[in-house]
Structures are given as C-alpha cells and as structure tokens.
Amino acid sequence: MANLGKLYIVATPIGNLEDISSRLTRILNEVSLILCEDSRVSIKLLNHLGIKKPTLSYHQHSPVSRTREILARLQEGEDLALVTDAGTPGISDPGNRLINELLAREPELVVVPVPGPCAAITALSVSGFPTDCFLFLGFVPHKNGRHKFLHSVAESERTVVFYESGHRIKKTLAQLGEIVGEERKICLAREITKKFETIYRGSTVHLLELVDDRRKFTVVVSPKNN
Ligand code: SAM
Predict the structure, then answer these.
(1) Residue 104 confidence (pLDDT) above 90
(2) What are the chain's domains?
(3) DSSP three-state, residue 41
C-alpha cells in the first residue's frame, strides 16, 4: 500500500493578491490536486499564479462520497491542498468539516497548515481591543438563535469577533445597539486588504450613520465594562 499523502490547508488572500506567500505558491505547485470551495473563485488565483492543476470542489453541500473520493486519493499517496474562497480554510467555512471527516476515517492523516490571511484575526489586529483572550462567534444566525447570539455579544467580558454580510450589517448593528446601547466600542472592518478597505470605529449608532453598502464586514466588539 502507498504511503499516505498529506493534506495541506492553504490560506489564500482575503482580497489582496500581494498577500500571496511564496510557500502558498510552492505548495499549490507541488500537490497533484487542489480542493476548492468554489473552483470559479479559486481559478482566478491559480491563473494569477500561472498554476494549471486539476481541481475538485468541496463545499458545505458536498456528499460523503466526495470525502471518500478525496480519502482514496490520499491513500494512493497523493498530496492534496485545500483552499476555500478566501482566507484560512476551516474558519467559518467548510474546511473543518472535511478535516474532521477525513481524520475520522484515517487518524494517521498528516494535515499541514499553510498559514496566511484570516479576516477575523486581521480585524482583531487593528481593533486596539484586548486580544489576549477573545471570543470568535462566526456568522450571526439569520433567524433562529439571532437574539441569543446578540445577547452573548452584549454580555461578553472578552473582545468578540464575528462575521456579517453587507446586506445584513445595518440590521445587525441596529439590533446590537438596542441591546448594548451607545457605550460599547465597535471596530468594523470593511473590505480588509482591498482597494476600498475602511476601518470604522465608534458606537453602533455612529457606525449606522456611516455604513451603507453590500461589502464584506468583520465586526469586533469591545468587552463589556472595558
Ligand atoms: N475563512 C475565512 C477567513 O479566514 O477569513 C472566512 C470565511 S467566511 C465564509 C467569509 C466572511 O469573512 C465574510 O462574509 C466576511 O464577514 C468575512 N470577510 C472575508 N473577507 C473579508 C474582508 N476582506 N474584509 C472584511 N471581512 C471579510
């Protein structure tokens, strides 16, 4: 039986191709197959790097048969890379599910991190809020659990980071404001690393006056009583 191949978890830019690392480029050139969340997105990165490699999609709706197919390739001794649409795979995207499913079937699998941009960590790094201990909550639920989510942000004695899409950011800021009032400081990172990157700072009320678009946002909320 062939030696088990390695699975590289490769972080990709969150909007700025200058954030491509030389290690990312080398690994994507060396593996035999690149697993992509959406190959239409990842192909732009591969074209930019001049890499012509087969890709295979792996996303949140992929069936278990896709995991088996990926495992079979690793068991053949092939090294594979996983990329998601942007940022670090596994952080609020389907990457962690794949790793979990593969390790359940093949505990000896070597999973190699190739670190790079992550929207949550990048937003935290410019927030100025305490970061020795923080709470990352992923995406705000659309319906069920939304109220509970916003209350847990309000009650947190740690800095909180979460993701929100552009078309819901105003609603989320308004609802959060109703719970936390005007005192709580927010750092709202919009389009980080991109041409129209903007870091907004202030209360929910202040930010509601400024924010009005459909871009990507990462929200950082200062701790209660800070
Ligand atoms: N795994 C990714 C990472 O490491 O950054 C996060 C994936 S999650 C599906 C995508 C969400 O991250 C977006 O909806 C947005 O809230 C946030 N995000 C991604 N890119 C961003 C950017 N350039 N600026 C601000 N937020 C961003």
Answers:
(1) yes
(2) 6-114 (3.40.1010.10), 119-221 (3.30.950.10)
(3) helix
